[in-house]
Amino acid sequence: MLILGIETATEQIGVAIGGHEGVIACFEVARGRRHAEILTPAIAFVTEQADIGLDELGLIAVGVGPGLFTGMRVGLAAAKALALALRLPMIGISSLDLLAFPHRGSDKVIVPVIDARKGEVFYAMYRQVPGGVQRVAPPTVGPVDELVGDLLARSQDVLCLGDGAHRYREEILDGFHCEIGDDLYPSAAPLVQLAHARALREEWVSPSEIAPLYLRQPDAQINWTTRASAALGMHQ
């Protein structure tokens, strides 16, 4: 089964194709917030490089976040549109899983950290298991000092990854001694690998069942709620 993977939850846009042979082609670029502009040409480029037609695909995989709201929506909308047009099932995978999986050989606690802006980070914790990683702390969002507190509470050797770990490197290392890995963004390549393993177990769903992993309200919703509360206060 050939799988098209789309990951757009961070500054990086990633598209990959693969199957039982592994990843056949992969395109990734970080160019600010130009997700809508770049994604469609990226899909066309990867399918052309792999010499695979869209009609040959058997599954659409997508990173569901957490991450940038706009980027996540662009990727999810494109993935669902393709799946519906081609009548294909889908698999959604957390972008934190995608950061952790390439480090499945590490004997440290693997902590992907994605920049959530506003002084906060998205993060989860994983440990090595045969053939992959297992999540040992659920995805959460909070200020960096909460992350440091969780690391201190676990009190184990830790490998932190992601743009959040790099942005807040000094704050993390001031509070907890750990390794900061080079990986900045979740990749579309492990998305295809993880989706293939799940596809073998027939763990796919219909496009309508794929939902973003927000962890907090979109900014527009937060702003609207704030304004509504302020207006209510003025009328009381």
Secondary structure layout plus pairing:
Layout: E1 3-7, E2 12-19, E3 22-30, H1 35-50, E4 59-63, H2 69-86, E5 90-93, H3 95-100, E6 109-117, E7 120-129, E8 132-143, H4 144-154, E9 158-161, H5 163-167, H6 169-175, E10 179-180, H7 188-200, H8 219-235
Parallel strand pairs: 1-4, 4-5, 6-9, 9-10
Antiparallel strand pairs: 1-2, 2-3, 6-7, 7-8
3D shape: globular
**Radius of gyration (Å):** 19 Å
Mean model confidence by pLDDT:
92
Please indicate the percent range of residues in DSSP E strands (runs of 2 or more). Answer: 25-35%
**Count of individual beta strands:** 10
Low-confidence stretches: 228-232
Q: Considering DSSP H and I runs of 4 or more, what fraction of the residues is helical?
A: 25-40%
State the CATH superfamily name of the largest domain: ATPase, nucleotide binding domain
Q: At the first level of CATH, what is the class of the largest domain?
A: Alpha Beta
Structural class: alpha/beta
Query: What is the end-to-end distance?
Result: 61 Å
Number of helices: 8
- CATH architecture term of the largest domain: 2-Layer Sandwich
Plain-language structure description:
This protein is α/β, with parallel strands linked by helices. The protein folds into two domains: 3-94 and 186-220, ATPase, nucleotide binding domain (Nucleotidyltransferase, domain 5, 2-Layer Sandwich), CATH 3.30.420.40; 96-180, 2-Layer Sandwich (Nucleotidyltransferase, domain 5). Helix content is 39%, strand content 29%. The protein has eight helices and ten strands. It has helices spanning 35-50, 69-86, 95-100, 144-154, 163-167, 169-175, 188-200, 219-235, and strands spanning 3-7, 12-19, 22-30, 59-63, 90-93, 109-117, 120-129, 132-143, 158-161, 179-180. The strands form two sheets. A five-stranded mixed β-sheet has the order 3-2-1-4-5, sandwiched between helices. The chain has a five-stranded mixed β-sheet with strand order 8-7-6-9-10. Helix 1 (35-50) crosses helix 2. It is globular and about 50 Å long. The N and C termini lie far apart (61 Å). Mean pLDDT is 92; it is low at 228-232.
